[in-house]
Amino acid sequence: MDNVDIRVRVPAELKERLDSLARSSKVSLSDLTADALRRLMDRDESEIEHIRRALEDSRRPNARIVSHKQAMKWIRSLGTSAPLPKPKGRRRSPT
Questions:
Q1: How far apart are CA 95 and CA 92, in angstroms?
Q2: How far apart are CA 65 and CA 87, in angstroms?
Q3: Using an 8 Å Cβ cutoff, are 68 and 40 in contact?
Q4: Residue 62 contacts residue 92 (beta carbons within 8 Å)
Q5: CB neighbours (10 Å) of residue 21?
Q6: Tens digits of per-residue pLDDT, 71-95?
Q7: At CA 84, angle to CA 62 and CA 50, rounded to 5?
Q8: At what angle do helices 12-25 and 29-58 cross, to 10 degrees?
């Protein structure tokens, strides 16, 4: 794979952390940065694909839809002494 140079401006504190990690792990700053970017891109691309599939599923006839308000109420109850049951939502009406 061909490597190319890019220029990125980062806060001094982040550069110091990168330098320190590169020294302690004996990995070049370039390799460390490329690996971090690769992991970030993999995570973000995976998240975007997950959202795309969820939107696609939500458009199916008879898909179950939970309102934002109902979902947030359930999420906020998790980890409390009285968690709510997972919302079932309503069936999407066929269009």
A1: 9
A2: 9
A3: no
A4: yes
A5: 13
A6: 999 999 999 999 999 998 888 766 5
A7: 50
A8: 110
Cα separations in angstroms, 29 against 5, 7, 12, 14, 79: 13, 13, 15, 12, 40
| 3-state SS, residue 18 | helix
Structure tokens belonging to residue 48: 């975007």
Whether the full predicted model's pTM is greater than 0.70, yes or no, is no
Show the DSSP H helices in 26-67 as ranges: 29-58
Residue 26 CA, distance from chain mean position = 29
Above pLDDT 90, what percent of the chain?
79
- Enter the tokens of residue 22: 């590169």
